[in-house]
Amino acid sequence: MGDKSMSLEDFAGTVESGMTIGIGGWGSRRKPMALVRGLLRADVRDLTVVTFGGPDVGLLCAAGRVRKLVYGFVSLDSIALDPHFRAVRERGDVETAEYDEGMFVTGLRAAASRLSFLPTRAGLGSDVLTMNPDLVTIASPYDDEEYVAMKALRLDVALVHVNRADRAGNAQYLGPDPYFDDLFAMAADRCYVSAERIVAPEDLLASGPAQSLLISRLFVDGVIEAPRGAHFTSCDPDYGRDEAFQSHYASAARDADSWKLFRKTFLDGDEQAYQEAVAEFHAHRAGQEEGR
Question: Cys staple from 159: which of 32, 126, 205, 219, with CB 3.0 to 4.6 Å?
Answer without folding.
Answer: 32
